[in-house]
């Protein structure tokens, strides 16, 4: 006993002095040059502490150092979370495209900015900073000449490609906001987003190419704009050589760009002018157009990109998310370009032409940081290790995961097989609303522990908190609750387009004084965070957010349907899949199988393919409370086959409804 105690003490004191040596040899100014001016900060832990207790000082120093300003800001921040007022770097003027392009063109014009990994492996296209600036300026001039003004919002419906990035940056150059809509969304979903954003200009491509298939994107835009009187012009870039029908409204983008000047005066934008809208699902049927502004967003994207992934100059960054999602915005486009990095735009799928695609690409492009979604990792691990081992992935240094919880099996495989046990896996938690990564295992000491499946530690300046049902702070560890962010940060969304009240109600009012994320989390004994999932009616299919109400809205539009309830249930590849309970009107006279197919088609057509229910169960009635609310928790338990966990059914209006549903579910299985 005595011996054990002594040896433990000896070990502890040895490791203390070893740590002292480490922290003495750690050069904080090399790690973060701004920190040289932070009093008493000599290691990462102190830097983290400083970023919270001297938040304004921290963000001001970083903003001055990392961004190129046209004129300096006078106020670091003016935020009141309880009232939904969020302002950063007021008084400052800058241009985001200058920060992403011009300043790197001055120092290294021939450096590769984008590697466009096209659908066909081996056909990648490299675009230098000089070339990307040229494209952006020509397009900026074209937009200006065709009447797009500062403050307008341009909708972009394109797959990941250099012209899509140039479109985003051209908007930023002339002070227009962009609204990128994921090119997998249907015409109806696109139209809804164009209308809400009031865009008069849409940018698209003639066709997309993905997984060896051609996708008629221009046709989808044609259908969408029929229902959008605001649209005056559609710019069409040529992704394939196949001509498409062009109307008076359509503009041949590349041809017109050739006629434009390659110099485009950047607009001087206020820090708080809108940079982009990005629509995401909430718990009602109507998607929310989250608004991000110029300086704060860019600063947060570039800082998280550099520190979470330990991105170094010269590295090739491979984020395989589509540019239609926030991950593509922050980590395929804005973060890497603001850092002067080389970033990959991935057009294909993880299994095209075979399940070795990612790793063959890592080898061919010499990717150093790979950032992807758990759903793809779960899919690939099923195909076996040999698809990874065929390729040389030794360039990899960091592996990132985003979009949904990563289960231990997928995490271990990613770490052991893809990363060869050498690369830290950073499970990054964040949202469209947060603009950039909020909780992740890094930055921290390179040898600091990483627990599989845990997002772990807050980023600089971030203060996650857990609250109880009444909104009281849960201060101890080993506890779970709704996850809130207690301190404003520059990257956060400022509002919901045209609906600030909804912004306040969704994020600011549930727990006054805090930003409510909609997720639940667990804080471990050691103080590490693990995300447990959504607390609202949002489900996560293959890392894509979907509101159950959005799907119900579509299903309920079918004349045969009386009402419906949609829930998410766990799926071993997609994370969650969609399950719809549908009550039909009397005497429909159509076989259920046909109706089931019809409803699936309706959802694909109205939203997107990934929103399609995997299971549709027709029921006589839904379980409801006496006040008429659908008891989704009961439906979830039935689908999870956890009949013992149905919980309190005393408020249930008609207990027979549950029995019927249980029986129907068993028949379906
Ligand atoms: C970046 C992004 C956000 C929602 C978020 C949460 C889930 C994202 C996660 C994660 C567990 C992670 N989510 N990252 N859950 N672990 N590492 O995905 O943005 O599309 O807005 O989705 O995704 O539920 O609230 P977005």
What characteristics describe this protein?
669 residues; alpha/beta; 21 helices; 22% strand; disordered N terminus; binds ligand 6R9; Acetyl-coenzyme A synthetase
Describe this structure in words.
By secondary structure, the protein is of the alpha/beta class. It is 35% helix and 22% strand. It is built from 21 helices and 32 strands. The strands form nine sheets. An eight-stranded mixed beta sheet has the order 12-11-8-6-7-14-15-25, with helices on both faces. It has a seven-stranded mixed beta sheet with strand order 5-4-17-16-18-19-20, sandwiched between helices. Helix 16 links the parallel strand 19 and strand 20. Helix 6 crosses helix 7 and helix 11 (294-308) packs across helix 12. The chain is globular. Bound molecules: ligand 6R9.
Distance between the termini: 57 Å
Which parts are unreliable, with pLDDT below 50 for 5 consecutive residues or more?
A: 1-23
Say how many strands there are. Answer: 32
Largest sheet: 8 strands, mixed
Helix count from the secondary structure assignment: 21
Biggest sheet, spatial arrangement of strands: 12-11-8-6-7-14-15-25
EC number: 6.2.1.1
Organism: Sphaeramia orbicularis (orbiculate cardinalfish)
Keywords: ATP-binding, Ligase, Lipid metabolism, Nucleotide-binding
Catalytic activity: propanoate + ATP + CoA = propanoyl-CoA + AMP + diphosphate; acetate + ATP + CoA = acetyl-CoA + AMP + diphosphate
């Amino acid at each position: 006993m005595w011996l054990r105690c002594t040896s433990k003490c000896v070990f502890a004191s040895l490791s203390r002095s070893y740590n002292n040596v480490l922290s003495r040899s750690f050069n904080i100014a090399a790690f973060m040059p701004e920190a040289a001016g932070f009093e008493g900060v000599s290691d990462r832990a102190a830097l983290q502490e400083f970023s919270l207790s001297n938040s304004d000082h921290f963000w001001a120093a970083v903003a001055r150092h990392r961004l190129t300003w046209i004129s300096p800001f006078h106020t670091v921040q003016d935020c009141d979370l309880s009232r939904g007022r969020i302002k950063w770097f007021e008084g400052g003027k800058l241009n985001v495209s200058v920060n992403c392009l011009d300043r790197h063109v001055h120092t290294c014009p021939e450096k590769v900015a984008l590697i466009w990994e096209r659908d066909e492996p081996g056909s990648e296209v490299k675009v230098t900073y000089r070339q990307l600036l040229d494209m952006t300026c020509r397009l900026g001039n074209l937009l200006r000449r065709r009447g797009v003004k500062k403050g307008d919002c341009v909708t972009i419906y394109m797959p990941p490609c250099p012209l899509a990035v140039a479109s985003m940056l051209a908007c930023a150059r002339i002070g227009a906001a962009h609204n990128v809509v994921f090119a997998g969304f249907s015409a109806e979903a696109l139209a809804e987003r164009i209308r809400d954003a009031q865009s008069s200009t849409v940018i698209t491509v003639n066709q997309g190419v993905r997984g060896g298939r051609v996708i008629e994107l221009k046709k989808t835009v044609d259908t969408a704009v029929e229902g959008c009187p605001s649209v005056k012009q559609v710019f069409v870039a040529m992704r394939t050589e196949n001509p498409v029908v062009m109307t008076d409204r359509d503009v041949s983008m590349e041809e017109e760009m050739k006629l434009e000047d390659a110099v485009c005066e950047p607009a001087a934008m206020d820090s708080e002018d809108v940079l982009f809208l990005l629509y995401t699902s909430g718990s009602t049927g109507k998607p929310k157009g989250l608004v991000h502004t110029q300086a704060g967003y860019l600063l947060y994207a570039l800082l998280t990109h550099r520190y979470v992934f330990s991105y170094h100059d010269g590295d090739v960054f491979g984020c395989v998310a589509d540019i239609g999602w926030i991950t593509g915005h922050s980590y395929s486009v804005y973060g890497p370009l603001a850092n002067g990095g080389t970033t990959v735009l991935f057009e294909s799928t993880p299994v095209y032409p075979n399940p070795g695609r990612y790793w063959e690409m890592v080898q061919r492009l010499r990717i150093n940081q790979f950032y992807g979604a758990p759903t793809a990792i779960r899919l690939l691990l099923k195909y076996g290790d040999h698809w990874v081992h065929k390729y040389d992935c030794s360039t990899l240094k960091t592996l990132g995961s985003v979009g949904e919880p990563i289960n231990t099996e997928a995490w271990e495989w990613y770490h052991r097989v893809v990363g060869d046990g050498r690369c830290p896996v950073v499970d990054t938690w964040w949202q469209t609303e947060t603009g950039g990564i909020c909780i992740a295992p890094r930055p921290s000491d390179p040898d600091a522990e990483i627990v599989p499946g845990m997002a772990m530690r807050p980023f600089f300046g971030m203060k996650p908190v857990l609250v109880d049902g009444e909104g009281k702070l849960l201060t101890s560890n080993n506890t779970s609750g709704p996850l809130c962010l207690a301190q404003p940060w520059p990257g956060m969304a400022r509002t919901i387009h045209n609906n600030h009240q909804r912004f306040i109600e969704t994020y600011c009012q549930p727990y006054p004084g805090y930003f409510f994320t909609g997720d639940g989390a667990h804080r471990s004994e050691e103080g590490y965070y693990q995300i447990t999932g959504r607390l609202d009616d949002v489900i996560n299919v293959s890392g894509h957010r979907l509101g159950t109400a959005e799907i119900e809205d579509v299903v309920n539009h079918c004349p045969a349907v009386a009402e419906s309830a949609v829930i998410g249930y766990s799926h071993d590849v997609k994370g969650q899949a969609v399950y719809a309970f549908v009550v039909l009107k009397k005497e429909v006279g159509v076989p259920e199988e046909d109706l089931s197919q019809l409803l699936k088609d309706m959802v694909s057509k109205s939203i997107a393919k990934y929103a399609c229910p995997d299971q549709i169960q027709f029921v006589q009635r839904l379980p409801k409370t006496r006040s008429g609310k659908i008891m989704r928790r009961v439906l979830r338990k039935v689908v999870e086959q956890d009949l013992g966990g149905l919980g309190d059914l005393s408020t249930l209006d008609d207990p027979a409804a549950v029995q019927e549903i249980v029986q129907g579910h068993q028949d379906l299985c």
